[in-house]
Amino acid sequence: MEVVTGMLRRSDQFQTSKIPIGIIPLGRNNSLAASLFSSRESEVRWIAESAMAVIKELTCPVDVMRIQPLQDENSKPVFATLGIRWGAFRDAEQNLDKYWYMGPLKQRFAYIKRLMKEWPSEVSAVLSYNVQPVETVITKDPAPAPEPDTSWWGWFWPWKSTQEVTLEPQEDPNEAMMPDSWDTERRISAVEFTAATTNSTTSKEKCIVVSSSPKLSREEFVNLGDLSASTKTPPQDVAGQDWSKVQVDAFQLEPQVPEGKESWFSIDNEPYEVMPIKVKVLPNKLRFFCNKEEKLAAASQPL
């Protein structure tokens, strides 16, 4: 996230945003890498695929979330490629590695500890957004493969540049403009609130998916958290869960945190103190090196 924020805060960000970014697929929560290099038979193979994507110059567009704090007019925005998490599931996952001594029980123990700290544990906020169609990307047929290089130097450098079929991010001079008014406002009170891009899915819609959890019992909280951690699936995407979800291109969140209580967002898995924010999706803002064959195959599936 630091790299993305650094690039997009620059005065020449329309130029720097065209520079492809490479990801080393490491870490427990590297969800973006999982979508760019979806074949993960082994960590070594995953790293090798990311290196080959750079050599072959395979890139694909990635959406970015622009997150603007509202407390200070002079505050700078933060940019993210995955999304925002806020709530008890987020808090428990932050402490997973602390309980390494519990062995295979560490995941379940982390959620039980969070349960013991405070229950019922809910976050409250006023959520504002506009109900409107979101942008849908139409996938074009890929350009025909170039003819094999029969020259003598082709034997020493067999990889052909694929820049001619690279999907370019589209520049929009109005992309960073936040709405001045909202047509929908509702109060939320949930165990977990999330706002995610569609980068880690095969969806063609360029939007933010805003989710809030239903009422959960203690047992449901622990079981869902354990299943989420075991399958590396966000709680809101675990099958059979009845989360409230809405697709928007921008929203405003005004958290209601009791005075003296600490509360934290996770923005691309980095902690940030909870504060009022405005968020907007910037479709296809950056290019990342990826396994183009798999990414295009997923994107070409019907809606």
TrEMBL record:
Its main location: mitochondrion. Its cofactor is Mg(2+). GO terms for cellular component: mitochondrial inner membrane; mitochondrial intermembrane space. It catalyses: an N-acylsphing-4-enine + ATP = an N-acylsphing-4-enine 1-phosphate + ADP + H(+); 1-(5Z,8Z,11Z,14Z-eicosatetraenoyl)-sn-glycerol + ATP = 1-(5Z,8Z,11Z,14Z-eicosatetraenoyl)-sn-glycero-3-phosphate + ADP + H(+); 1-(9Z-octadecenoyl)-sn-glycerol + ATP = 1-(9Z-octadecenoyl)-sn-glycero-3-phosphate + ADP + H(+); 1-hexadecanoyl-sn-glycerol + ATP = 1-hexadecanoyl-sn-glycero-3-phosphate + ADP + H(+). Residues 1-70 form the DAGKc domain. Its EC number is 2.7.1.107, 2.7.1.138, 2.7.1.94. It is an enzyme of class 2 (transferase). GO terms for molecular function: acylglycerol kinase activity; ATP binding; ATP-dependent diacylglycerol kinase activity; ceramide kinase activity. Pathway: Lipid metabolism; glycerolipid metabolism. One of its GO terms (biological process) is lipid metabolic process. Pfam families: AGK_C (PF19712). Keywords: ATP-binding, Kinase, Lipid metabolism, Membrane, Mitochondrion, Mitochondrion inner membrane, Nucleotide-binding, Transferase. Belongs to the AGK family. This is Acylglycerol kinase, mitochondrial. The gene is LOC118419045.
